[in-house]
Design a protein that fits this description.
Helices cover about 55% and strands about 5% of the residues. It is mainly α and about 190 residues long. The strands form two sheets. It has a two-stranded parallel ribbon with strand order 1-4. The protein has a two-stranded parallel ribbon with strand order 2-3. α7 packs antiparallel against α8. The longest helix has 15 residues.
Length: about 190
């Protein structure tokens, strides 16, 4: 595993220079593309304390937390997935269910201005676990320095992620996202 400084360098190269010294750096999914809640609900979670899952967008992990799994190990070939999961976890801790929903619903609006993106990040940063707070701080600062964008030029998460998943679709695919009660249970 790379140290955090090398992860930041590789992430900046991938996101802002469209280049990477590490071919494992690829775009991250905004959210799950499959309906996770169907198979999570089909399994018996009684006495299941630990699980192994793919990290991807983090939705698999959030659904396992929602089911009460305490120890979750995750894996992914893409080094950007775990920092992205930590960002989403910070967003969940920082925002209520309604605001979490609105954040992803308005992501395209937020992305029209790098300053607005940084302002949102400033709210989320205290809720992001170390050293990922530093990772995202560096990426958002680089975004301020080098990615002046508008309605036609993508923002940071749009540069990093692929295939925007609307919150209404995520709500259908994920138990933790289904309603406020499930969301609170997951935080």
């Amino acid at each position: 595993m790379e140290n955090i400084e090398q992860q930041i360098i590789n992430a900046k190269n991938f996101i802002f220079n469209n280049d990477s010294n590490n071919s494992n750096y690829i775009s991250v999914w905004y959210g799950a593309t499959e309906t996770i809640k169907e198979y999570v609900e089909a399994l018996n979670w009684t006495n299941v304390n630990s699980a192994l899952t793919v990290c991807s967008s983090g939705d698999h992990i959030f659904n396992l937390i929602n089911k009460g799994v305490k120890r979750i190990d995750s894996f992914d070939i893409n080094p950007l997935t775990f920092p992205y999961f930590k960002l989403r976890e910070g967003i969940m801790k920082a925002f209520s269910y309604q605001d979490f929903y609105k954040f992803f619903e308005r992501l395209t609006i937020i992305a029209t201005n790098e300053k607005k993106e940084y302002d949102y990040f400033s709210i989320i940063k205290p809720f992001i676990e170390k050293p990922y707070d530093y990772f995202w701080e560096e990426l958002y600062l680089e975004n301020l320095r080098s990615n002046v964008h508008d309605i036609t030029t993508p923002g940071l998460l749009s540069l990093m992620c692929m295939n925007y998943i609307p919150p209404s679709t995520s709500k259908l695919r994920n138990k933790y996202y289904e309603n406020e009660y499930e969301y609170q249970k997951t935080i």
